[in-house]
Amino acid sequence: MLSNKLARQAGIGLVEVLVASALMAVALVVLLGSLSSLLLGSRVAERRTVEQRLARAQIECLVSKAAICPTSSPIDGVTYTIRTDRATSPSMPGIVELTVTVSDPAGRSESLSIDRVLP
Fold first, then answer.
1. 49: domain range?
2. Counted domains in the chain
């Protein structure tokens, strides 16, 4: 009687281990997938932060009327290109709209615009 009970329970442990292993494998795949998307989001946020910082620095350089403002900036091995557009309005003299576009070698870009009254 006791040996029959042990014989029936011997296979249950193996099935339980297989089910638990399959569940852990599925959970691990989901976890790794979410970590990769978090890493991608972090890289995009870092790139946008760098581009916005460069654009703001370029706008300040232009507003201060510095002799030379940079047109490219290498940061962490990536060279960002800085393009500036100035637009003046004939109907509103003295107001200049500055648009600074910063792009990386892959072609992704971030633009900032500002209206300033320049003396």
1. 2-117
2. 1
